[in-house]
Amino acid sequence: MKKSTSISNILQLVIPKEKMLPLLEELKYVEVGRIFTVYDLFLFLAEASFQQLGWLSGRRAAHGTQRSENGGSLYALEKSERRSL
Known about the structure:
By secondary structure, the chain is an all-alpha fold. It has 4 helices and no strands.
């Protein structure tokens, strides 16, 4: 069985909910959700972004392209993906 750690577990250690509360207070945000909070949304979006980046790096590896410092080959990969659609 392969063990893996999701990015949300790491983020919960690095940015706990208590550190996010002062930011929300500064923005004058009032939490109205009871089940799905802003912190849950933050973790969800971070996990989705991380998985999307993993997918893109896998596609680059499959195509033999690597991302340059200015992101040029990433743009070329996205352009080639548009053509295949």
